[in-house]
Amino acid sequence: MESNRVSLFLILLGIAVSLVLSSPAATATATETKLVREVCQNTSLMKYKDCVEALNDFRTGNITDIRALAFLSLDLARANSSEAVGFVRGLSVYAPSELGSVLKSCYDNLLYSHMNFHVAVGDLMVDPMTANYDTFVAMDGVNYCRNVMKEAKVSIPEVEKRCDNVEVFVHLCYTTTGMVGETSPEAN
């Protein structure tokens, strides 16, 4: 019975990898508007190319205001982290029992990151620097998930990839909300 679960787990993991690699979002490039260039040049904690790819959305080309781009980046972060949470949750259903506690911990921690992006949306309307802090602490969930896998001496490439993706959005949102904070009347 356990070998059937492992086989099913590996088949599902293979399907997930092929879907991610064949998705249009994995190969498309965002239109580099002036604002996208400015934001991506200010993201010192991620590669410029990764920043532009993270902002690859049909709505980006119409945005000329940093506050609107910050809201869009948070929306993209929420969608991305929601996918990561759902993937890890689904993986835990079919995972071998020895990975159960690792996946449960990663699920909880990535959910923490996801919730911080949600909180940041509300805070951005009132206090951009609080939203900036919310995005900063969203990185904790990613780091805790990685640490749990490291301590358990396991490598789950698809979970690691999702941690990397959430990290990209942490850095992007940290930059955009910080730029809003610098331009808001409270900053002067």
From TrEMBL:
Molecular function in Gene Ontology: enzyme inhibitor activity
Pectinesterase inhibitor domain span: 31-176
Signal peptide (residue range): 1-22
Keywords recorded for this protein, A-Z: Signal
Keyword Aminoacyl-tRNA synthetase: no
Key word Signal present: yes
Superkingdom of origin: Eukaryota
Matches recorded under NCBIfam families: PME_inhib
Designated name of the protein: Pectinesterase inhibitor domain-containing protein
Phylogenetic lineage: Eukaryota, Viridiplantae, Streptophyta, Embryophyta, Tracheophyta
